[in-house]
Amino acid sequence: MSDFNPKQQINSVSSKIVAGLERISEAYKVLLWEKAKQLGLSPIQIQILIFVNYHAIDLCNVSHLAKEFNVTKPTISDAIRVLLKKGFILKAYPSTDSRSYAVQLTESGKEMVNETEHFAAPIKHQFETLSESNQNNLYKSIYQLIFKLNQVGILSVQRTCFGCRFYEKQGSQSYCNLLEQQLKESDIRIDCNEFELKAV
Predict the structure, then answer these.
(1) Alpha-carbon distance 127 to 124, whole Å?
(2) How many beta carbons lie within 10 A of that of residue 188, not counting itself?
(3) Which of 12, 46, 91, 180 could form a disulfide with 101 if both were Cys (CB 3.0 to 4.6 A apart)?
C-alpha cells in the first residue's frame, strides 16, 4: 500500500513521516517559486546563486552543480547562460583547461543573493517555535537521513561529518580530527566547508 494512502498512514509512523516530508518539500517549492516570480528568475537560478555565494570555486562548475541539485548538465548550463546574460555571475577558469570553467558572483549577483537567500525564513520560524530538545532531535534525524540517502545513491552529494575523512567515532562519541575536538549532536554539520570525502 502506498505511503500516500491515508489508510496506510494510520498504522505506520514511517509512512506518516514520508507523507509529512512530502508536504514540507511542497512548502519549500512554493516559497522558492514565489521569490523566483517576484525577481524574474527560475528556482534553479536562485539556488545556483545562493550555492555559489557560500561554496568554494571548485564546487561551482557545471558538473558539480548538476550533482548538487540532482538535475542534468544541460539544465545547469541553461541556467548559467541566463545568469551570465543578466550579469549575476561570470566565468572563472581555476585550472589550465580553458574548456572547464567555474562561476563566481558579480556585485549584482551578490545583491541578488541578499534578495533571495531568506526565502525559507517562514519555515525556519516554525522550527524556532519548537523546544531546543525537539529541534536537536529533529536535526539528528535529518542529518542521519541525508547521509543514509547518499549511501544508497538517492542523494548524489553530501558533505556531512559521517562521510568525511576527519570524522571518527570513539565509542558512542563523535570526534573531528581536523578541529581536534569531540562533537556534540548539534555540532554535526550537514554542509561543511572543510569536508573531505572519506576513502572507501
Answers:
(1) 5
(2) 19
(3) 91
Q: What ranges do the domains of the chain cover?
A: 13-116, 130-187
pLDDT of residue 98: 63
The CATH class given to the 13-116 domain equals: mainly alpha
Closest by Cα among 24, 34, 65 to 48: 65
- Say if CB 133 and CB 107 are below 8 A apart: no
Half-sphere exposure of 176 (CA within 13 A, CB side): 16
What pLDDT, in 10s, does the model give residues 36-73? 999 999 999 999 999 999 999 989 999 999 999 999 99
Alpha carbon distance 86, 77 (integer Å):
14
Q: In sequence order, what are the residues at sequence separation of 6 or more whose Cβ sits closer than 8 angstroms to the Cβ of residue 164?
A: 192, 194, 195, 196, 197, 198
Q: Distance (Å, rounded) from C-alpha 39 to C-alpha 109?
A: 12
